[in-house]
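INFO batch 0412 | record 1 of 1 | parsing
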Amino acid sequence: MQKKIIVYTDGACSGNPGKGGWGALLMYGASTREISGYSPATTNNRMELSAAIEALETLKEPCIVHLYSDSSYLVNAINEGWLKRWTANNWKTAAKKSVENIDLWQKILTLIKLHDVTFHKVKGHSDNPYNNRCDELARQAIKNNR
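INFO prediction complete | emitting tokens
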């Protein structure tokens, strides 16, 4: 039986583009693991995607994952079918422009084939303590690398 994991993720950028950080919480039963990272030159969207990728890559075996993010870019790409359309259209948007962050989207595609992932949208910077903690982790990663 696959483990059921709850993941919260967030990305942040000081300037967009600029220095960026990401944070994630992985929860299994009573255990919680915090992870975070930094990039010296990036965008907010890349950090949002990186948080999800790093969290999913942390899992040692295929799992059932409920991933919560305040990123409409991430959640809508999956839940609204954008990612499927982009791949079907050779990584072009409906406006025939190249999709941004293809390298990260390709990693996400690989990871969501390995894990059974359901994406959930949460309101950012509100009363969700898990999302707020991820935001703190992302901002701290930036601060620690100034």
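INFO post-check: The domain at 4-143 is CATH 3.30.420.10 (Nucleotidyltransferase; domain 5).
INFO record closed
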